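Objective 1b: paired records.
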Amino acid sequence: MAELVDETVVAAQSGKTNMRNYLDNKAKAKTPHYRLFFLASGKMKLVPKSEVRIEYVGVPRLDYERVQELYSKIQSKLIDASDVTTKVEMVLVEGGCFNMGSDKGALLEGPVHKVCLSSFKIEKHEVTQKFFQSVMKTNPSRFVSADLPVESVTWQEANKYCKKTGKRLPTEAEWEFAARGGTTSEYYWGEKFDSSRGNFCDNNCDMNVRVADASDGYKYTAPVGKFPPNPLGIYDMSGNVAEWVADWMDTEQNYYIISPKDNPSGPDRGNASDFDGGANEKVLRGGSWGGGIETLRSAWRKAFFRSYRFENLGFRCAKDI
């Protein structure tokens, strides 16, 4: 039995080659070889391609599925047994008024409009896989670790988790108010981007929005709380994973124009079960490890269908007081 090391190796000519070979145009063509590692002898050997028959042996589908199932169970047990010290903490956000949106970004970020909110609480960290799994008994994440934010989670799953824990998803206005933490700049730390403040698509990222001359230290998601908090002491509001919020996105007319000033909760969509297609999408905020630097701005917003599932999308919960 032998193991294929290289698909094709062109072996050097053996014997002497003189000028007559070239003058007579009779030089021998190079012979393609396989480089094979023979298990019995423990040695590697070049064997002419014509003398070898390669059989590619795959893993039977049922065996593969069984291995994947066992691997998933092992990962779940490791998360359950982990000694992650991050707690589910909430930060009090005192009510007040602020200018929501931005006139410097995409059209859907404007116009800037005044919003006033009642006091509420919001979680200090993005929901981790440890806590999501403990409540939902499942973990959809691609990048698995107890202290990483849960991702690849749908809006419905995020909403259900928050309800099960006696909370709710924050409204879009609450999310931006908390993210800004009293600031009025494009980013909560100032007008210019700072690569030390959040997890974004840096020079390790595979996306086409990567920033080639900057690094945040993580190719994908980072453990929650690894970057500096905003002025309210809330972590990862800029980057790591984008976050689902409660609101629908209004693509037919700009909700920011008709939004009530006090405690806006987004466009009314009636019975949500009737709206899985068309222009009915839920808003997400905050940018992610797979997004460009503009997505870490406090006013950045985007929307996807509620059933959308991607490895840069998570959430955190809020609560009335």
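Objective 1b, second protein:
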Amino acid sequence: MQGSDEHQPLLSENLRQKGVPFLTTWRSAFNSKDFWFAYGEDISLMYKHINVKLCTPFCMTLLFLSFFIWKYQIYDILYLEDGFYLVMMTVLFITSYIAYIRTMCTDPGYLPFYYPAHPEKQTYSKEEMRAGHGGKLEQIVWARRQERPGRCVFSKGAGYFVLRGDHFCVWISNWIAIKNHRYFYIFILTASIYLDMVFVDAIQLFCRYRELHSMYFHIFTIFTSFAFGALITFQLYQQTFLIAKNILTLEMMKENHKDYDRGCLNNCEEVCGPKKYMLFWIFPCFTIKSPVDPFTIPELGGPNISLEEVYEYRQRKEDGTLDEMFNLPNERKENPFVV
């Protein structure tokens, strides 16, 4: 079959019996293995799991631009002899850029919309994921009525279930979830430091050498560095608090807080990986798997939680055996929390 041929996957008997309406028609794009078109309510251009949007290349352009403005218009005037400052800012920029790319390109923890039809299956092929892109109304309605693991949401925008989905980030056209949350935190940490320092340098350049550039240059540099620096710094503050308390952004926004707090370090371990690899948490080049199995996270809130389960959770928290509750083998409860 040629790369541009249309794929019309057929429902298996098992999926039909579970009420799955139909699978998604798709075809490869540009004779590429990674680009493809999904036929939902609209035709979506996808790159692997990413719904391609214009904001992503726009943000990457601004990120590149910020480094060249700082290096060739600010550093060369203010800090030409300070080699350490150049190295520090370059390392911050490269680290933030790598973290940005990994956040965007890493599968955050997607599952096809028909996952609840056979929840024992946890891995899917590329073709199964494409056929499982839920972009039509019947698929979305069916998926939202099904049971799923705790803290798992169905995203209409992505067309997939998302394991431990924190929020959808429009700047990267991807969900922040169990598999890329750490990369996202590294990105906002390094980018906030970098952009805040660019803003301070831009103010200093304007005060001391305003005649070297036009007023338009100073306004552009100061405004963009302040706007993006303030935005990402606020995001850093918010994410630090939420990770430390083990609260998802969606839970905070919908005031649907659930008591998953297992202590600050254990909460960080859930996002960043085992504590024994703590020294590598800050490096986006390393892939570190979360010790928490997202398929067995218990549901600790909402109408489906019983008083006995609440008591068990609180008792385990007091006894220090809460980790065992996050690895129960067949714990699958309905979660009405959807996006």
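Residues 301-307, 326-339 have pLDDT under 50 and may be disordered. The radius of gyration is 23 Å.
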